[in-house]
Design brief:
CATH superfamily of the largest domain: Type I PLP-dependent aspartate aminotransferase-like (Major domain)
Number of helices: 16
Structural class: alpha/beta
Radius of gyration: 21 Å
Number of domains: 2
Oligomer: single chain
Bound molecules: ligand F0G
Shape: globular
Strand content: 15-25%
Distance between the termini: 41 Å
Number of strands: 14
Order of helices and strands: HEHHEHEHEHEHEHHEEHHHEHHEEEHEHE
Length: 448
């Protein structure tokens, strides 16, 4: 048992349901055909054929009645529409007035905006870890990513509470040696590649100091900033409020961006913040040319209303406690049956170390993912492995406010049953794009 494991509590959700979405389980015969037609890649299964969908915690949250009703008060004018002011008010309530903020259509759109044109071949970007799309946009410019996580993050079995921390010694050395080439430091909060692990406030604020000393900008990818803030409160600063932790997180940055589809509880959108005083002219020109007017960035005003309210709701401590308890529920189920998972339990999901279950296979995550879908219509996603390097993980990401604990228990039982049975399809790669293969690759059975 891992020592940071907390007892599964049966917290009732601090909300009740008003609108429901029916889900159904196709027959096992159909599921076998469906996964085959999807090229044994869970990303390619039609959502209507999934019973419990743990593919992603992105854009999959349930809306609150406040979000829904505010969306009806939207003003679909072209520029400086009402929702923009609601958006700015919500951001200022949480983050203050240190940044100029822009609504944009999606996190990866911001990555394309920030990196293309501002990075050049030979540049170095220092990071704790980056998400697939972030790596794609950085590497497309010819720049290189140097990941400098703490050593504990390399050991999936370690219960170190802040595995998204940067190794500060290595950071200083790298900045000293490669000064002219380092374009910026980027930090992913939480670490979505390896367990939804948080960064500590102490580490983050020290990185901020170092970045100032070396005059290297610090960018925060805060897609899961609220979960990170909750885990800081729980593991590092129990006396601080979640809101004050969140404010300090953003205060550490020169630039931040947040995909609104995760912690911000919205089906679409993203937020970009540029510290006041940084020249934003070129950026505004690019937003206008590529995304939309600077007060909507390609989003409808209804989207902006939903994002504004979701941002305020994201830091509600009761909600966060329940949300994380649901993730831990699945973690505890799998852990107590000795399924290899990344420790400790992070913020957004449970990551099964597929490579440890099937060490001789090339695509163990897809083989396990296919078998789990066939067993009970549960879907998760596959990260790492042959497409991006390192071990392959089967991620069960929990959508926010969407599923009951009964759904989580069902998913856990199906996963355990499948892995205990040990019957997985043997897959070989059929086709894959040159990058981002995890999402689009297709496989076939080895004998086909
Ligand atoms: N940064 C992080 C840490 C992410 O997890 C994602 C997306 C992005 C950036 C891109 O943002 O989706 O708004 O374009 N992650 C999703 C996932 C897709 O399933 O983890 P986006």
């Amino acid at each position: 048992m891992h020592n940071t494991q907390r007892k599964t509590n049966n917290l009732p959700p601090p909300f009740k349901t008003k609108v429901i979405e029916r889900i159904s389980l196709p027959s096992k015969e159909k599921r076998k055909q469906i996964i085959k037609d999807a090229g044994y890649n869970p990303f390619l299964i039609p959502a209507r054929d999934v019973f419990i969908d743990l593919l992603s915690d992105s854009g999959t949250s349930a809306l609150s009645k406040e979000q829904l009703s505010l969306s009806l008060l939207s003003d679909e004018s072209f520029a400086y529409q009402n929702g923009y002011y609601t958006f700015i008010d919500a951001i200022e309530k949480i983050i203050g007035k240190e940044f100029i903020t822009y609504p944009l259509h999606q996190g990866r759109g911001i990555e394309a905006l920030l990196f293309k044109g501002f990075l050049k071949r030979g540049d170095i970007v220092v990071s704790n870890a980056v998400f697939e799309t972030t790596a794609y946009h950085i590497e497309q410019t010819g720049a290189k990513i140097v990941n400098l996580p703490v050593d504990e993050s390399k050991d999936e079995g370690s219960d170190f509470p802040f595995k998204a921390n940067l190794n500060l010694g290595k950071l200083q050395d790298t900045l000293k040696k490669k000064m002219d080439n380092v374009a910026f430091i980027i930090l992913m909060l939480t670490d979505n590649n390896k367990g939804g692990q948080p960064i500590s406030l102490k580490n983050l604020e020290e990185i901020s100091q170092i970045s100032k000393k070396f005059k290297i900008p610090l960018i925060i990818d805060g897609a899961r900033f609220a979960e990170n803030a909750y885990l800081i409160k729980e593991r590092e600063f129990p006396k601080l409020s979640i809101k004050s932790i969140a404010k300090r997180i953003f205060s550490a940055a020169d630039i931040f961006y947040i995909s609104a589809k995760k912690d911000v509880l919205s089906p679409a959108g993203a937020i970009l913040g540029i510290r006041k005083g940084i020249d934003n002219k070129k950026l505004e020109e690019k937003i206008l040319a590529q995304e939309g007017f600077i007060t909507h960035g390609g989003l409808s005003d209804a989207d902006l209303m939903i994002i504004s309210q979701g941002f305020l709701e994201s830091l509600d401590e009761k909600y966060l406690r329940y949300r994380i308890s649901q993730v831990r529920r699945l973690y505890n189920m799998l852990n107590s049956e000795n399924i290899p998972v990344i420790h400790p339990c992070g913020g957004n999901g449970v990551y099964i170390i597929s490579s440890d279950i099937l060490p001789d296979r090339n695509f163990p995550g897809y083989e396990i993912g296919s078998a789990v879908y066939i067993e009970g219509g549960v879907r998760g996603s596959v990260f790492g492995g042959k497409f991006t390097g390192g071990k392959e993980y089967f991620r069960l990401a929990i959508p926010r406010r969407a599923y009951f604990n009964e759904h989580i228990d069902y998913a856990g039982k199906i996963i355990i049953k499948t892995i205990k049975k040990g019957k997985f399809p043997h897959l070989q790669l059929k086709e894959s794009p040159s990058a981002l293969g995890n999402f689009l690759a297709r496989f076939k059975m080895e004998s086909q």
